[in-house]
Amino acid sequence: MHSNFMGISATQCFLPTYHRGVSNAAPIAELWNVSPFDCLTYCIVNAGKTGDGCASIVYHRHFSTCQLYSHDGTYNGAKVVFANGHDYYNRTSFSGICQDRHPPARGYPQRRNGKPRALGLPQQTTPLKQVVQDRLSHDNFAPHGSHKSYYLYPNQPKTGCSRNQKIGYLALNDFTLTPTTPIGKVNGVDKFGCLNYCIQNIDAHGDPAFCTLISYNSATEECQLHDDTAKEAGLFTRVEPRKYSTVAEKFCLDKNVRCPEEKIFEVILGKEIHDSALHVFTNFETLSECIDACFEHPICRAVSMKNGNCSLFATNVEVEADLLHDSGNTIVVDCKC
Question: How far is Cα 25 from Cα 70, in angstroms, rounded to an integer?
């Protein structure tokens, strides 16, 4: 089954969204006693032989089965819904290494009737850009010293990265997640041990745990592993001030960026940089977009983001901390490697 498809990861041809399934739709095929890799491989290598194209997959973790669909889960009355123990894979590429080995005779019905929606995130009736702006237009960041909860700027949840990327972490010190149920807990480890469980996507027993972020308390040495359900609207990580706690969230950066693997980037909430910006971008939707822009600039060391505006700076915020001033709804990231 794996011929000419070895080494392909889910993030190359598919975008996973965990704890999601497809309702009100009949699959084109169902496989039993298989791994997620088997299902993804079958989707591209073999599904076309039946005449139907494979556009999405739902994998059942507890039963090792998967269902294949000819659409993205939103076609002809179908819906992508929350489903514990199920993982949804939306096919994002149909060319190159992701091209069908056997072109389906009946093609893809959703393509014939309009462009399918990208489902890297749980479905929303409001466009992503508007969701981001609506959230950020409210005072989601508290005044300095306040105990009001904060929103971290939106980022698509990640459990892993593609072959041409490496994992980094966005870390907020002295913050914890607003109470939410973790998918796993590990006790008696330090912060780096906690991160290691998340990197490997396993829990304390070595069982799979699709980790996107951690919440760690250094006073109690408790490590909480969280998946994408910890995020509001599939994007926002809600945190609140708490001493001795750290929230760290995975994100992907290009392998060509001169930063070590698993680099931790400090996130500073409620501050802005009082210095001349190298460049200002508008209408950015995620914090990782802003950070990527910094990596592409030869002398950028930090970014600030406010209401979708991303500013790049050559400022070393660790050394020049006096240039950080209070700003209720601004976020700063130290991007130097």
Answer: 10
